[in-house]
Each structure stands twice: as structure tokens, then as C-alpha cells.
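wait is this the right file?? whatever heres the structure
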């Protein structure tokens, strides 16, 4: 696989925002030529399939400005500097849903935008939920609701859930459940 590797020659910051940082690198290609690679640096995120005591999972309706519409999503948020993915998951779950998890179990990790971002999203299952205090960020507005995992799979298959982290989380959790790995 080393024959496919590209080597960075130079790197410049194009934009340095609050969340996202855009880079423009000049790279040497495997054939010795050079090319430009523009990409977004992202701090990483955590998403959760959170199981209520009744077996249902928590979902959110949240408006996403770039697409100007409300999406169904699993609870998720960015990793803060110095924070572990597990700590992010526990924090974000309570902030967005008002529930605390007694147990987290790693489900998978995804790279949702490999062509233009270094973002990684760690997906966990959250169990043993107890009611805490919902405390979303000042700029976050969302409605929390619950569905069975099977209903969420059906909604995904029907096109009602199109957010990639949510789709992968739901479908991976369903496969784990069907294989008796719960």
C-alpha cells in the first residue's frame, strides 16, 4: 500500500474558523508529480445509540443550516480538546437528551467525508440510562423522541433518516442485536 501514499510538501491554512479549519497542501504523488489537496480539519465527534429501559432508542429532530431542513439524528457532538471519546459521549448524551448513561460500549468508527475532511466519528451504544438534566448549548435546538430499533431501521430503509452517522449507527446496532451480541 505504500505505493499509493502521497507525501506532504507544503501546508497552508486557508481558513481558521471556530469549528473547522481549511488546509491547502501540496503533495507529491506516487508517480513523482505534485498536486493540491484541500481539506477540512475537524476535531472528531462521538455519536450514540442510546437505549432507554424500555428498549427504545433516543433520537433527535434537529435543523441543519447547510441543507435548510430538519434531520433525524442520534445524539452526537464534537470532541473538545483533551477529552476522550467516551467522555464526549457521556457529556453530549446528557446535554442533548437529559439522560446519563451507566455503560458505554464501542460500536464502530466512521470517516464520513474522506475526500475532503479528516473527521472521524466514534459511535457507541449507551445503556443503563437514567434521567438527568438536558442542557443543550445556547445555539442548539432539538426535539428528543424515541423509537424502537426496528422502527428506526424501517425509517432508515424508507429514506426518512438520511444522516450518515445515524444510518450507520442504527444499522450496525441492528446487526449486533441480530447476531446476539447485546
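ok assuming it is, sequence goes like this
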Amino acid at each position: 500500500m505504500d505505493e499509493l501514499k502521497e507525501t506532504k510538501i507544503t501546508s497552508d491554512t486557508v481558513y481558521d474558523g471556530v469549528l473547522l479549519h481549511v488546509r491547502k497542501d501540496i503533495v507529491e504523488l506516487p508517480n513523482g508529480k505534485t498536486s493540491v489537496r484541500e481539506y477540512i480539519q475537524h476535531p472528531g465527534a462521538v455519536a450514540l445509540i442510546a437505549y432507554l429501559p424500555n428498549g427504545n432508542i433516543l433520537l433527535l429532530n434537529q435543523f441543519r443550516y447547510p441543507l435548510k431542513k430538519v434531520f433525524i439524528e442520534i445524539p452526537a457532538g464534537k470532541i473538545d480538546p483533551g477529552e476522550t471519546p467516551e467522555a464526549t459521549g457521556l457529556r453530549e448524551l446528557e446535554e442533548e437528551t437529559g439522560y446519563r448513561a451507566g455503560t458505554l460500549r464501542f460500536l464502530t468508527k466512521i470517516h464520513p467525508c474522506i475526500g475532503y475532511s479528516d473527521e472521524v466519528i466514534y459511535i457507541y451504544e449507551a445503556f443503563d440510562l437514567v434521567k438527568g438534566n438536558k442542557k443543550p448549548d445556547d445555539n442548539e435546538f432539538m426535539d428528543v423522541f424515541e423509537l424502537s430499533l426496528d422502527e428506526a431501521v424501517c425509517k432508515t430503509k424508507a429514506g426518512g433518516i438520511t444522516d450518515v452517522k445515524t444510518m450507520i449507527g442504527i444499522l450496525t446496532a441492528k446487526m449486533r442485536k441480530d447476531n446476539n451480541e447485546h
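Helices lie at 85-97, 149-157, 164-178. so i think its the right one actually
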